[in-house]
Specification:
Shape: globular
Strand order of the largest sheet: 6-7-9-8-10-11-12-13
Largest sheet: 8 strands, mixed
């Protein structure tokens, strides 16, 4: 697949990753409307498809843009071979429908958001296989693992599903809670065929560390969140609950409980630690050091430029991402009204809370032990920018250690050559050295 596809799908038509909200409306009618829209696209009736849109979607996607977007897919993906039945979901706090479209080479997910009149007012196309496309039914969850070195059992975190990995022996053992990065994610942190949180849990449990991993709230409990949800609602509160539950176990040394946070989770980890004085310390895996809306345009630019050729479509994607970043930043400074389009479609309330976080400053003020791990092949959270900011911000920290891995990417999976999102689709495992380094660091504290 050409690199333009990721920009065309994941970036130019931005993924609505809103924290959540309650669904209302007629699901059956929404499913029919989404089906009719796709029927008209397939038939080449772009005016008819446009007539089904309302509000921002109607303005943003006139018939000629629908035509250009839809007809650009087969040359890159091959012909459309299968359209799976739609399913309902919540997008930006409103009813939504998701339909998986399987082209000959790759799958795409069409996402429709509906307003209170039952009309399509949000439309997005995103790659369907960057993460596991459908939440697994509880009956399909893998059975707990039992080995000579550790065992597992179900361990809910409030209303979220969780799994406890417990080393064999008398204990008490040190313990960690795994905190996700951005986007919906199951307890294993599944990305395509890869499960980095599961790999970490097994690697740490084999080395004598108790591990609690749980489903992120936006994975299966998005309906419990309002459109005005902040990081407190999406992640912080659940992480603190997980820490308390873990500390209460007799098998756990309650003085040695740590948070291990990935990517955006690393950005909010100091906030979590500030709310729990007894936390033993923080481990950041590719921890973001700046607001995510600042990093998004850089990711888009990297994807566009990595082959040395920037198309007009890619140029438009970069310009749009930069415009959304600048308009949001101006609003957050009080210099402009709320932007009509925000990065990733996330409501302004979340971004306002997000921008108020100063992770390195907050971590330095805490003074808790910290281990920061970074793959040098990470184009999403980078050595040159994010890790540099952490190093500078923690220069006066009494106990902060940094480790980098030349061959590892954002999910600490091994690879070679320039990093790219396609490698997330190839089955791999987190490098065992990562779990070994974390366990050794914990053993020193």
């Amino acid at each position: 697949m050409k690199r333009a596809l990721l920009l065309l799908l994941a970036l130019l038509l931005a993924l609505p990753a809103s924290p959540g909200g309650a669904a209302v409306g007629d699901d059956a009618a929404n499913l029919r409307s989404a089906g009719q829209f796709l029927d008209r696209l397939v038939a080449g009736d772009y005016s008819g498809a446009h007539a089904l849109l309302d509000g921002p979607a109607r303005e943003d996607y006139p018939p000629d843009k629908l035509k250009d977007t839809w007809e650009a897919l087969p040359p890159r993906l091959g012909p459309l071979v299968l359209r799976r039945p739609g399913r309902t979901d919540r997008l930006g706090g409103r009813p939504g429908v998701l339909v998986r479209l399987e082209f000959e080479e790759k799958a795409v997910e069409a996402r429709f958001r509906f307003n209170r009149r039952g009309r399509i007012d949000g439309l997005w196309l995103v790659p369907a296989d960057l993460r596991v496309p459908l939440p697994p039914a509880p009956v399909d969850a893998p059975p707990p693992v039992s080995t000579a070195l550790f065992s597992e059992r179900d361990f809910p975190v409030g209303d979220l599903g969780g799994t406890l990995s417990l080393p064999r022996g008398a204990g008490p053992f040190p313990a960690v809670v795994l905190v996700h990065g951005s986007g919906p994610a199951d307890r294993d942190g599944s990305v395509g065929p890869n499960k980095p949180f599961l790999d970490l849990a097994y690697g740490l449990a084999e080395r004598g560390v108790v591990v609690l991993r749980y489903d992120k709230r936006t994975w299966l409990r998005a309906s419990t969140l309002s459109p005005e949800a902040t990081a407190e609602d999406v992640q912080v509160r659940d992480a603190l609950r997980a820490v308390r539950l873990l500390r209460a176990l007799r098998e756990v040394d309650d003085r040695r409980v740590y948070v291990v946070a990935h990517s955006l989770g690393g950005y909010i980890a100091p906030r979590i630690a500030a709310r729990d004085d007894e936390l033993g310390g923080l481990v950041l895996l590719a921890g973001l050091a700046r607001p995510m809306y600042e990093a998004i345009p850089e990711q888009i630019r990297y994807l566009a430029q990595r082959d040395g050729l920037v198309t007009e479509l890619e140029r438009a994607s970069m310009e749009e991402a930069g415009r959304q970043r600048d308009e949001l930043a101006a609003h957050l400074r009080g210099e402009a009204p709320a932007p009509r389009r925000t990065p990733l479609g996330i409501p302004v309330a979340y971004w306002r809370d997000h921008a108020g976080t100063r992770p390195a400053q907050e971590a330095l003020a805490l003074g808790k032990p910290m281990l920061l791990l970074q793959g040098e092949r990470d184009y999403q959270v980078t050595v040159d920018t994010d890790l540099r900011l952490w190093r500078e911000g923690l220069a006066g920290h009494p106990d902060a250690r940094f480790i980098t891995y030349p061959a590892l990417n954002h999910f600490f999976l091994p690879g070679a050559g320039p990093p790219n999102p396609e490698e997330y689709r190839r089955e791999s495992r987190v490098d065992p050295q990562v779990a070994a380094d974390i366990a050794a660091w914990i053993g020193q504290h």
